[in-house]
């Protein structure tokens, strides 16, 4: 089998329009979002208006990261130290980290083999007095949002959506991030728009967003936000909200604005690559790939699959073989964190919790980024390597 020579961490170049806009910001020296001339709207505020329009939300706040957006959302929603916040047992560390940042208690919920939150376990744990659900759309997999909304309404749960992997995704025509109080988005390098680091928070609730803007570090300059509630909502809380600085700057906004214009085109490009890999995996009798539900419009910037028959030894051998042929896979079943990948049992700042269903799924779960720097032919090659290595290990065990 011919090795793959591409780089799984190589993003496409920042568009020229974004580079030109960023250079203009640098030449101006006005990088801070509130460093504006009279009657001037900052680029950060322009980004907020543009993203609110894209999202179909009333309000938007640009901030320093997606993780900051989540912790900010919980503070603005009134989550207090010791409050119970439900979240997926299968997610990335910034999600429980955001809960820890507000000194709340994370209650982990089992996941399904479709990699979405287990609705039966959610229903049971929602009965135990939780204040909120921080729903992680992990690796771009949308849960049944109709049922999620019903459960949250039944148990009076505040719903905050982690949409780091679902920017532009939809459930029955409604955008991810628009089902609860707030949607939290990331513009970190490996997400759907790339500013190195960055986050966006959206909501239709004026009281919530006024608090969020004040908490983000607006000082008394909240009237310079163009995608914000009316001033009356700030007057009620402006002296009560502490400054927890986490603002986005004009340089990152300049990098993002032109990318937003290209986002839908890039989603189609991601999905074309994703579908080509998925077609190969579906043909394998060894690899288990779960097809996506019809109600979901997804963004295929990564792909996941299981090989349920593999032992731990098989898994490690498989990772060694694929890496030897140039294919970089992540394994979510390892008890030790590796890079960005970690299992819930390694988050020792949380109380120990037992998730046997999640453990079984993660024990043979593999994950792979699909950067747009890959061609369709690259994706075909990668899929062939994955199925070849899986078949090779099965034959070794025969």
CATH topology of the largest domain: Aspartate Aminotransferase, domain 2
The CATH superfamily of the largest domain is Type I PLP-dependent aspartate aminotransferase-like (Major domain)
Number of domains: 2
Termini separation comes to 21 Å
Beta-strand fraction estimate: 5-15%
Number of helices: 13
CATH architectural category of the largest domain? 3-Layer(aba) Sandwich
> What is the string of helix and strand elements?
HHEHEHEHEHEEEEEHHHHEEHEHEH
Kindly state the number of beta strands. 13
SS-based class: alpha/beta
Shape: globular
Overall helicity = 25-40%
CATH domain class name of the largest domain: Alpha Beta
Strand order of the largest sheet: 1-9-8-5-4-2-3
Q: Taking all residues together, what is the mean pLDDT?
A: 97
Radius of gyration from CA coordinates: 22 Å
Biggest sheet statistics: 7 strands, mixed
